[in-house]
Amino acid sequence: MKRIFALFFALCLLAGCIQIAAGEEIPSLKDVYAGKFDFGAAAPRKAFQNMQTMELMAEQFNILTPENELKPNFVIDWVKSKKKVLETGDQTAVAVHLDSAKPLLDFAKAHGIRVHGHVLLWHIETKDEFFHEGYVVSAPLLDREQMLGRLENYIAGLMELLEQQYPGVVVSWDVVNEAIDDGSHALRKSKWYEVVGEDYVERAFELARKYAPEGTLLYYNDYNTAYPGKLKGILQLLEKLQAEGNIDGYGFQMHHRVREPGMGMLTNAVKAVAALGLKLRVSELDVGVSKNTEEDFQKQAKKYADVMKLMLEYADQTEAVEVWGLTDNMSYRSYEYPLLFDASCNPKPAFWAVVNPDAEGGW
Ligand code: GLA
C-alpha cells in the first residue's frame, strides 16, 4: 500500500503540480474582475499536459497568451518556406503552421477562453533566415519591397489559418514587441529596422489591420515603460502609430520586483499612455522576490495589490491584466518566485492581494 502511495506521489510530482489544498474553494480571478477587464495568464505548451494546471486555467482565467508558441520561430515553417521560394522563385513566399500553439488554441476553444496573440514581430525569437534571400543566412538580405512582401504573406497566412481553424478565438495581437531601445530610446537597430527601414512598425500595423479579422485589437507591447526616457520613446512611437489609425492599444509588460519600478513612476507611465486615449493591457505581470518566505511573499503581494489598484483606476480603458505564467516553478523567473500560485498550485499571498487589493496587508 505504502509503495502504491509513494508511486502515486512520485507521479504527481512528475506531473509538476499537486493541489495540496485539494478541495479548498478559492475565488476565480476572472469572476473577481468581471465587468472591469479580462484576467488571464501566459501558458507554456507543457501546461496542457497537466490536469491540475488545466483545471487552474479553466477556473481562473478568461484570456490566455501562448508563452512562446505564436512567436515567429514557432509559427514559420522554415523548411517549407525555403522550399516554396526554391520552387517558385518568389522571395516573398512564407509557409506557416499552428502545431506548437495547437494545445492552447484547442483548450481555449473548448473552454470559451479568449486568446491574446503574442507576437507577430520581435527582434528576438525570429531566425535570421527570415531576412535573407531563399531563407539562407549566407545569401544577401532581402530588399525592402521583398521583405514587406514576405511580412505580408506571413501575417496573411497566419490570420487565415487561425480563422479557418479557430474562428473568433484570438481576439487581440501584440503586433510588435520591444521596438524601443533601452539606451537611445529610439527605434532599436534590429534586422527589421535594417531591412525595411524606419517605418517598419507602421507597416506591420498596417498589414495586421488589413488581415486580422474585424474587431481584433492590435497592440504595441514593451517593457520598462515606467522609466522616463524609455517612456518618452514609447510615447513617440505610439503617437506615430495613432496618426495612421491602425493601433488600438499599448501592452505594459510589467516584469517587476518589489521595489522596482517605484509605484510613482509606474503611475506616471500608465497615466501618460492612457492620456493618448489608447486601450491598455498589462500583458506580462510578475513580481520577483529574493526568497520564498512569508515576509517576502507579503511584500510581493503588496506590489501586486498596488498594480491592481492602479489598473482599476483605468478600468474603463483596460482590456486585460495577464500574469506571465501559471505557477512559480513554471515561470521563466522561477528563481524569483514571481507568480500567484506556488509549484503545488496553491494560491500565494499575491493571489489574495489580487482578489482583494484594498486590504491593508495580511493577504
Ligand atoms: C519578453 C517577451 C515574452 C517572454 C519574456 C521572457 O517579455 O515579450 O514573450 O519571452 O520576455 O523571456
Outline the fold blueprint.
Elements: H1 2-15, H2 29-32, E1 38-43, H3 51-60, E2 63-66, H4 72-75, H5 78-88, H6 102-111, E3 114-122, H7 144-165, E4 170-177, H8 191-196, H9 200-211, E5 217-222, H10 228-244, E6 249-252, E7 255-257, H11 263-274, E8 279-288, H12 294-313, E9 318-323, H13 349-355
Parallel strand pairs: 1-2, 1-9, 2-3, 3-4, 4-5, 5-6, 6-8, 7-8, 8-9
Bound molecules: alpha-D-galactopyranose.
The count of domains is 1
Name the CATH superfamily assignment. Answer: Glycosidases
The overall strand count is 9
Strand content: 15-25%
List segments where confidence is low: pLDDT < 50 over at least 5 consecutive residues: 1-22
Task: Write out the strand line-up for the largest beta sheet, numbering strands in chain order.
Answer: 1-2-3-4-5-6-8-9
The overall pLDDT average reads 94
Broad shape: globular
**What's the level 1 CATH class?**
Alpha Beta
Distance between the termini: 39 Å
Kindly provide the radius of gyration, computed on alpha-carbon positions and rounded to a whole number of angstroms. 21 Å
The CATH architecture would be Alpha-Beta Barrel
At the fold tier of CATH, the topology name is: TIM Barrel
Question: Ligands in the structure?
Answer: alpha-D-galactopyranose
Order of helices and strands: HHEHEHHHEHEHHEHEEHEHEH
Helix content: 40-55%
Sheet having the most strands: 8 strands, parallel, barrel
Going by helix content, strand content and strand pairing, the class is: alpha/beta
Number of H- or I-type helical stretches: 13
